[in-house]
Amino acid sequence: MQAVDPASIRGGAAALLGRTPARGLLRRASMLAPSDAPLPTDTREVTQLLESDSFRASVSELASKIDMVPAEAMTEVAGYLREMSATHNQRVSDVWQRFGGWLTRGYDILVDDDGLAELRRLDRKHALIFLISHRSYLDEFILPPVLQSGGLSPLFGMAGANLNFFPLGTVARRTGIIHVRRSTGDIPIYRLALRSFVGQLVANKSNLCWSIEGGRTRTGKLRPPRYGLMRYMADAVEALPDTDPLLVPVSFMYDQLPVHEVGRMASEARGAGKEAEDVRWLVNYAAGLKERLGRVYLDFGTPLPLRQRLEELRADEVTENQVERVALDVCHRINAATPVTPTAAVCIALLAADRALTLDEVLTTVRPLADYVSGRGWPVAGGATLTDRSTLRWALRELVRSGVLTSYSGGSETVWGIGDDQHLVAAVYRNSAIHVLLVRAIAELSLLAVAEADAEPGKGAPNTLFDEALRLRELLKFDFFFAQREQFAEELAAEIAILASPDTSNELKVTPEQAREWLARARPLVSHLVLRPFLDAYRVVGEQLAALDEDETVDQSALVDSCLRVGHQWALQRTLASEESVSGEMFSTALKLAGHRDLLKPGAPYLGKRRREFADELGEVARAIGRIADRDHPLSAGT
C-alpha cells in the first residue's frame, strides 16, 4: 500500500478557501462556473450522437412507438444529452481537487500501488470501468485524484442527479461528473439518451466510474448491485465489436466514516427520510469534517474483461440474466479485495458481548477471528496485526472519540462498551467484514442441522450437509453474494475442512457424530455474529406477513413502517437479540425474498399457509443461530 501525501492535493487549500472553506469554494466555483446553464459548447459525445444517422434513426423509431413527432423527440433527447454531458476543465479540476483535499483532511489515504501500476498498463489499450463499493460521499473526492496522480486517463464519473445543484453540480460537470436521474421508468426517451451516451463513451474508450450498488451502503456491507448502467455497457459491447472494456472492482474502506454521515445512515435505516442534498446540506456536511478519522484504504480487485465474460456465459448456454451474473462476479471481486479493519474487529467483539469489555477481553474475542482471517488469507487493512494490543487500543480510543463507544476508567481497569443508541453505527463497521465470515457461518449452521438430525427424527432433517447449506444460501441470496453452485460447494468444503481439523476432510458427507464433535471444538463460532441481525429482521417481516389477510393488498412501504414499530417493540422485549435488526433496509430485503417466493400477491394459491410456513422457517433458523450462540463463550475465562 502506498500512502498518498495529502499535501499533494491540498496545496494552497487554506489560501483558496479562507477561514470558511466550504463557502470559500462556493464563491470560487461561482466565478469559474457562474451559472447552472449547459456547458458552453456540446461535448464530443453529444456532437457525435446528434450527428449520427443511426442515433437519429433510433430516436425516430422510438418516437413512432410512443406516438411522438420525431422532431420533438430529437429536441427532447438533445436536452437530455446536454443535461448528462461533462468535460474536464483543468482549472476547475484543480479547484475541485483542493476542495476534495480539504474535505478528506481527516484521513490518510492508502492506495493499492501494485494494482494502480497494473491499471496504468491496462489503460493504454482498454476503457476501464471502475465499479466502486460506495461507503461515503467522500469516495468521489478520493478516487479521481488518485487515478490522475497514477497517470491514468481522465475519468468520467456517474453521479445521481440529486447532487446536480448549483454550484456543486456546475463545478462537478467540469471535472467529468455525469449526472444521471434515478427514476426514469416513465421517460423512455431519457433511457434511450442515457444508453446511447454510455455507448458513445465506451466507443471513445473513455474511462468511467459509478457505484455498482447505486448508492451508499446503509448497513456497512456491500448492497445488491443495480443493473441499469451495466446493461447499457453490455449493449455497447455487443454493438461495437472493436471495444473491449475492463470492469475494475474498487473497494473503499474507512477506519471510521464521518460521524454525521454514519449517524445519518443509522437514522435512515430506522426509517428516517433521506436528507435533501442542496447548498445548505453541502456546507453543513463540509463543516462536520473536523476530526482525524484514521485511514482510507483504496484497493483494486482483479479486472474482469466484459466481452470475454459475456462470451463465456453464452458458451455455457446462459441465455438469461447474463448482466446480473457479470454484476455478481464484480461484487465477489470487490469483497475479495476488501480488507478487515481493526475497527471492524473491535465492533465484532463488542457487539458479540453486548456489554463493556476490558482490553484483555476484547483480545480474547478477537484472537480466534484474527487466526481465522490469517489462515484463510483474507487481507487486513494496512497490514495491521489484529491481535496487537496497541492496534486494538487505538481502535477503541478512536471509536470513543467519535461517540460510537464509551469508556470507563474509574475502576481497576478501563472498560469499553457500545454507546447509547450506537448499536446500528457499530454494526455498520462490523458488517464491513462479514463477507469474510459468510460461508463459515453457513457451514456452522449446516453442521448443526446434521448434528441434530438423529436427536429429533421427525424434525425433517436435511439429506446432506450440502442440502442445508443450499437452503440457507437460497434464504440469504438477496442480502449476500454467493459463488455459483460448484464454486460454492468448494468454498463450503474448505470451511468444513477447517472445522474438521485435525480430521482433515474436504468432503461434504458428514455424520451426526462428526458434526457434533467438530462443532464442540470449533472456534470462532460466527453465525450469530454474522447472520442473526439479518434473519431476525426477516423474522419480523415473516410474522407481519403471516398476520395479513390473504386477500389484502400488500402496501410494502406501510408494511416496512409496521415492521419498524413491531421490531422496536421486540427489541425492547429482547425477542430480537439486538436493536440493529430494526432496519428498514433489512426489512425491504426480506420483502424481496417474500416476493420471490410469491408471498405478496393477494389471491395466490395457499397464500396464508405458505406465509405461515415462511415465518416458521425463519423462526427455526433464528433458533438454530441461538443454539450456536449458546455454544460460543469466548469470554468465560474472564467472567
Task: Provide the descriptors you would attach to this structure in a database record.
alpha/beta; 639 residues; 11 strands; two-stranded antiparallel ribbon; nine-stranded mixed sheet; 29 helices
Pick out the low-confidence regions: 4-20, 634-639
Reported for the largest beta sheet, the result is: 9 strands, mixed
Distance between the termini: 40 Å
The tally of helices reads 29
Number of strands: 11
Rg over CA atoms, rounded to whole Å, is: 26 Å
Instruction: Name the quaternary structure.
Output: single chain
Helix fraction by DSSP (H/I, runs of at least 4) = 40-55%
Characterise the protein shown here.
The longest helix is centred in the last third of the chain and has 25 residues, at 607-631. The chain is globular and about 75 Å long. The chain has 29 helices and eleven strands. Helix content is 55%, strand content 8%. Mean pLDDT is 88; it is low at 4-20 and 634-639. By secondary structure, it is of the alpha/beta class. Strands 1, 2, 3, 4, 5, 6, 7, 8 and 9 form a nine-stranded mixed β-sheet that branches. The chain has a two-stranded antiparallel ribbon with strand order 10-11. The two termini are 40 Å apart.
Q: How are the elements arranged and paired?
A:
Elements (H helix, E strand, L loop, with lengths): L1 E3 L2 H4 L2 H5 L3 H12 L11 H7 L2 H13 L4 H15 L5 H14 L3 E5 L1 H10 L5 E5 L6 H11 L5 E6 L7 H6 L3 E4 L7 H16 L3 E5 L16 H12 L6 E9 L4 H11 L9 H9 L6 E7 L3 E2 H10 L6 H16 L4 H12 L5 H18 L12 H13 L3 E4 L6 E4 L4 H9 L6 H14 L13 H12 L8 H16 L11 H10 L5 H4 L1 H15 L9 H18 L10 H13 L10 H25 L8
Parallel strand pairs: 2-8, 3-6, 3-7, 4-5, 4-6
Antiparallel strand pairs: 1-2, 7-8, 7-9, 10-11
